[in-house]
Design a protein that fits this description.
Shape: globular
Number of domains: 1
Radius of gyration: 17 Å
Number of helices: 6
CATH superfamily: Vaccinia Virus protein VP39
Order of helices and strands: EHEHEEHEHEHHE
CATH architecture: 3-Layer(aba) Sandwich
Strand order of the largest sheet: 3-2-1-4-5-7-6
Strand content: 15-25%
């Protein structure tokens, strides 16, 4: 990675942990039309987002303020990377960095993945990242969790046969929820990547998210999981 980003040039926006609860549910479940709801993307003109005009091969779901998204794009300059984030101010800030640094292979969309990934071609994606999602601890808020069987259907569809989905969380209850959702869904097999030499090699990612760096600094536990589609029989 030869290029680096001086984030001091891009003042961070005032951050809120959540946005309106309505923005976390599928559009079809809303009873009224909302002006501030993320646009439901039906198709993308990739030539408008990437210098090479090709579709993305890495998808970062819930990319937040984009440290992992941006720095991974620098590590893989020949791979197009797309971030999806429900908070518009975060996407606007990422786009300002992309424009300021003239990054040709990364883009971010203001989007709610509860509406699916229909704008991404089947079997076109090599890696899907889903890191440190909002835990939504209360049972009445579980419907706001993006990690659902419907999302797993979409991830399975867009991933190549040898593609990989990466999960990380620092909340044990969310890890349990992910594991049970994967088991019940049945399409993916998973493995945990512990924090040791063997686990790091299996994990294979060298760029860290802001939350991952925070966990390391504060010596807080977190888990890493790699998921692959089961072989067709």
């Amino acid at each position: 990675m030869s290029q680096t980003i001086d984030y001091r040039k891009y003042p961070l926006p005032r951050s809120r942990h959540h946005v309106s609860a309505n923005q976390y549910v599928p559009l079809a479940q809303l009873k009224v039309e909302l002006a501030y709801y993320p646009p439901v993307v039906q198709a993308c003109a990739w030539s408008e987002l990437y210098a090479n005009g090709l579709a993305p091969e890495f998808i970062d779901i819930g990319c937040g303020l984009g440290k992992f998204l941006l720095e991974t794009s620098l590590s893989y300059p020949q791979v197009n990377m797309l971030g999806l984030e429900v908070r518009k101010y975060a996407v606007d800030w990422i786009q300002s960095v992309i424009a300021g640094e003239h990054l040709p292979n990364v883009a971010a969309l203001w989007y709610n993945v509860a509406n699916g990934l229909r704008f991404i071609e089947s079997a076109s994606v090599e890696r899907v990242f889903y890191f440190f999602p909002d835990p939504w601890f209360k049972r009445r808020h579980f419907s706001r969790r993006a990690f659902t069987p419907a999302l797993l259907d979409e991830c399975a569809r867009v991933l190549k046969p040898d593609g990989t989905m990466y999960l990380m969380t620092d909340v044990p209850a969310v890890d349990e929820y992910h594991r049970h959702t994967l088991i019940n869904h049945g399409v993916f097999v998973y493995e945990y990547c512990p924090h040791d030499a063997a686990g790091d090699e299996a994990w294979g990612l060298h760029v860290r998210t802001n939350q991952e760096e925070f966990c390391i600094k504060k010596r807080l536990p977190y888990v890493r999981m790699k998921c692959r589609k089961r072989s067709a029989r």
